[in-house]
Amino acid sequence: xxxxxxxxxxxxxxxxxxxxxxxxxxxxxxxxxxxxxxxxxxxxxxxxxxxxxxxxxxxxxxxxxxxxxxxxxxxxxxxxxxxxxxxxxxxxxxxxxxxxxxxxxxxxxxxxxxxxxxxxxxxxxxxxxxxxxxxxxxxxxxxxxxxxxxxxxxxxxxxxxxxxxxxxxxxxxxxxxxxxxxxxxxxxxxxxxxxxxxxxxxxxxxxxxxxxxxx
Length: 215
Hints:
The chain has eight helices and ten strands. By secondary structure, the protein is α+β, with helices and mostly antiparallel strands. β6 and β7 form a beta hairpin.
């Protein structure tokens, strides 16, 4: 997103249609106007927290967009948090040009497996782009925070999504002082599970939540 080292810029430009944009300017609107397959965030001058928030927003708004992080200042736990927030890959800037191109190619290669626009299960349906939840022909009203929370969980079926990752989306990375996450999960259960006899959500004590479905 910020200017890449020249050797990487040259290599990528020779293989791909490349646009370079700064995170200091409106970037979400710029991405929305284009149909990018992948985004590389050069994070050397960005804080890990800001990078995490950036990835979370990109992952939420553009689920099919592959986000790769390139930077040498991130620790292993920080890279793990970025991957959990939705990054496809995290790399040190010590990688050679060939490795960078290989990783970008791998991210592109499996794009078909994660481009689902609709989640369906047991009569329940959620459309990611339209942000609409329904059961059969019945629309289920949800507020903005409920939609954000639900969207993240449904993008990772049969996985545990940590509370910190959910805080990053719904509360911009700052855990609320109260039990707001538990309250919102209870609201989702009340609106989605009880009226329709569904069982979507599982609580993993001390870890987070997940949408566990049988295939």
